[in-house]
Amino acid sequence: MQHSSKGFIPVMLMPFQNDGQIDYPALTGLTEMYLKAGAAGLFANCLSSEMFELSAEERLQSIRHIVDVAGGEVPVVATGTFAGPLTEQADFVKQVYEAGTEAVIVITGLLARPEESEAVFNERFHRLLDWTPGVPLGFYECPEPYKRVLSAGQLGQFVGTGRVTYHKDTCLDIEQIRAKLAATEGHQFGLYDAYMGHAVESLRAGAAGLSCIQGNFFPELIVWLCRNYDNASLRAEVNEVQEFFIKNMGVMHDVYPTVAKYSLKQRGVDISTFTRRKVGNFTSTIRAGVEALYGDYRVLSRHLELVA
């Protein structure tokens, strides 16, 4: 997934009814919200979607629904590897691709155990390539079941096959980002950074865009940053937006994704705060923090002349 301009790829939330079933009308509304905000693509069936708490059929059905709602307006990528033998992972990758995705995302922590070497990971990934002919793939350095960060050399080698088009990076290290960008230069490939702590630096270094949980609170603000990160006349405002995200990182991460769903409810989005994932208690203190955050966002969005 490569765009001439920088793009925001939301890591999509999964709305549930209060009885725990997927809320498809709310999923339609959520998809339309991301599109209206200016998303360049959609990352479905990810950790924010509570993918590990979904059945295989729910994963596929929700991906198809999102692809249908997007209607070709933007590309959709989605996770396709889960626990189990590599043959099963390859089979599900093909099903996710057939659901209409542009690329199928591989969870780095599910191809090799923490104690297994880079060589073991590489061998398994090359087998996965062989068993999924013609399917464009991407990587997600997901924190679950453990975070396995790819080296620049690995990523460069995989992108060089012509099959890897997308990477969601969670290394939190701007120097590693620069090394990965250098190793993949010249290919039809996009690196999307998940870490807002150095978002502006990452965009200026050549990242294709941002793919962060903060976009599930204020997607318009991430889009604005992607569009204006290098605008000399808006340098002060860009710094202000970057600092806003750094200052509020703790509030946005605490009992996530419950907090994101509550924040969207404040904005009038029809979504329950129900989560299948056990993330802790949504206390009155956390609630007050999210409400204060929304107030601060309203002030900032007016200053930037965003539609809030």
From TrEMBL:
It holds the Pfam family DHDPS. The keyword Lyase applies. InterPro entries: Aldolase_TIM (IPR013785), DapA-like (IPR002220). The keyword Metal-binding does not apply. SMART domains: DHDPS (SM01130). Gene3D superfamilies: Aldolase class I. Belongs to the DapA family. PANTHER family: 4-HYDROXY-2-OXOGLUTARATE ALDOLASE, MITOCHONDRIAL, DIHYDRODIPICOLINATE SYNTHASE. This is Dihydrodipicolinate synthase family protein. It comes from Hymenobacter ruricola. The lineage of its organism: Bacteria, Pseudomonadati, Bacteroidota, Cytophagia, Cytophagales.
